[in-house]
């Protein structure tokens, strides 16, 4: 079973995302900001990270820059899931090493399609 | 009476699933035409005005679509069908592709993206990408090429989205280069196909499953007549043409259930 870390400061959004991911046969874990997500990754690296942008302590884009710098390469797959929906933010996220980008609000269909594109479903 | 109207105008059969949706699909039409409710509107059906008959038919058809829907047929188009047809037509450098149930345009634009990737047009090929649908409203939307954030995200990677669309508030507009590659028009699959000429690939997905059996056979006959002998008909994943396809069309590809089905079906 593939492992996904859901990083979002909203508990409700984390729960909804986890429910969708579990229906797609993922084992899920949660973190409420970039700093705790990094701690979790150091303990156990997931195959997939769903990542919000605006979070306390460490934003999504700071998190992915640190993650990619520490690990190198393109693993794990990181998909932004955020309300920052303009091209500027999308380009910044992709430039920082994101594999894809989901604009909130999203549903199971959209998430499944994205995860299919990145080869995880 | 409704069933008769739909069958006559579009070949559509109202299945049990659709019957449950009649009220919700037709209520907006009833309001638009000034009826108090659906029942009053349906009372007009023995002698409906053309405009009302058209609106009812359009409302009852399904315009569900998404970019690269089911993905596999598009992968197959890119990896097998296009190379094969390009090799066969290298002399004439001409291809004609028809999306026969284009709905709001996502399928046609998905094909346009694949064709743009190949560089065929830059290489001097004339590629006609024709997209038709029964619904004038759907075709008008397709021609406009503006999609909501939700629609744009369904089936497109963000990279593909950013490369091929421009953002307009919360909507996304297809790039002009791709928009110009597709000719949209409304067309009823029960009408004459003469204007289409020879077609190399027909995408007719998720339509035949809604049609009455003898109308489905008639539509398949017409498609067969317009399709080049080495052409391809792409059906939806849940569709088939039992007892017919082997003789009438050289290759029938049934979406995800039958990968590379050409050899085994033809």
Describe this structure in words.
The complex is a heterodimer of chains A (121) and B (266). Chain A has 121 residues and is α/β, with parallel strands linked by helices. Chain A has one domain (2-117): Response regulator (Rossmann fold). Chain A has five helices and five strands. In chain A, helix 2 (34-43) runs parallel beside helix 3 (60-71). The N and C termini of chain A lie close together (11 Å). Chain B folds into two domains: 2-60, no CATH class; 72-265, 3-Layer(aba) Sandwich (Rossmann fold), CATH 3.40.50.150. Chain B is built from 14 helices and nine strands. The model of chain B is unreliable at 244-251 and 253-266 (pLDDT under 50). Chains A and B meet through helix 4, strand 5 and helix 5 of A and helix 9 and helix 10 of B.
- What is the element string of chain B, with H for helices and E for strands? HHHHHHEHEHEHHEEHEEHEHEH
The SS-based structural class of chain B is alpha/beta
Tally of discrete structural domains of chain A? 1
Give the oligomeric state. heterodimer
How far is the first residue's CA from the last residue's CA of chain A?
11 Å
Query: What is the total number of structural domains of chain B?
Result: 2
Q: Tell me the CATH architecture of the largest domain in chain B.
A: 3-Layer(aba) Sandwich
Keywords:
heterodimer, A: 121 residues, alpha/beta, Rossmann fold, 5-stranded parallel β-sheet, 21% strand, B: alpha/beta, 2 domains, 6-stranded parallel β-sheet, 3-stranded antiparallel β-sheet
């Amino acid at each position: 079973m593939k492992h996904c870390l859901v990083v979002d400061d909203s508990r409700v959004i984390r729960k909804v995302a986890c429910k969708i991911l579990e229906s797609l046969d993922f084992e899920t874990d949660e973190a409420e900001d970039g700093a705790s997500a990094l701690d979790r990754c150091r303990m156990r690296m997931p195959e997939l990270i769903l990542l919000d942008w605006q979070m306390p302590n460490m934003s999504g884009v700071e998190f992915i820059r640190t993650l990619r710098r520490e690990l190198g390469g393109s693993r794990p797959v990181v998909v932004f899931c955020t309300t920052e929906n303009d091209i500027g933010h999308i380009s910044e996220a992709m430039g920082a090493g994101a594999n894809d980008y989901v604009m909130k609000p999203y549903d199971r269909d959209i998430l499944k399609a994205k995860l299919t594109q990145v080869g995880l479903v | 009476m409704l069933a008769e109207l739909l069958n006559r105008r579009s070949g559509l059969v109202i299945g049990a699933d659709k019957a449950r949706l009649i009220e919700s699909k037709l209520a907006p039409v009833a309001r638009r035409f000034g009826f108090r409710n659906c029942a009053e509107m349906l009372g007009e059906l023995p002698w409906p005005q053309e405009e009302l008959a058209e609106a009812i038919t359009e409302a009852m058809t399904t315009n569900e679509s998404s970019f690269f829907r089911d993905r596999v047929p598009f992968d197959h188009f890119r990896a097998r069908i296009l190379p094969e047809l390009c090799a066969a037509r290298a002399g004439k450098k001409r291809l004609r592709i028809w999306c026969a149930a284009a709905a709001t345009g996502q399928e046609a634009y998905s094909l346009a993206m694949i064709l743009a990737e190949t560089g065929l047009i830059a290489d001097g090929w004339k590629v006609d990408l024709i997209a038709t649908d029964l619904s004038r409203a759907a075709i008008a939307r397709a021609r406009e090429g503006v999609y909501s954030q939700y629609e744009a995200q369904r089936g497109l990677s963000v990279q593909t989205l950013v490369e091929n669309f421009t953002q307009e508030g919360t909507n996304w507009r297809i790039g002009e280069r791709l928009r110009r590659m597709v000719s949209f028009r409304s067309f009823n699959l029960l009408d004459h196909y003469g204007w289409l000429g020879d077609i190399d690939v027909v995408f007719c997905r998720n339509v035949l499953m809604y049609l009455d059996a003898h109308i489905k056979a008639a539509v398949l006959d017409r498609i067969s007549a317009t399709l080049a002998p080495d052409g391809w008909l792409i059906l939806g994943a849940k569709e088939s043409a039992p007892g017919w396809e082997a003789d009438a069309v050289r290759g029938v590809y049934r979406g995800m259930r039958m990968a590379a089905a050409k050899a085994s079906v033809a």
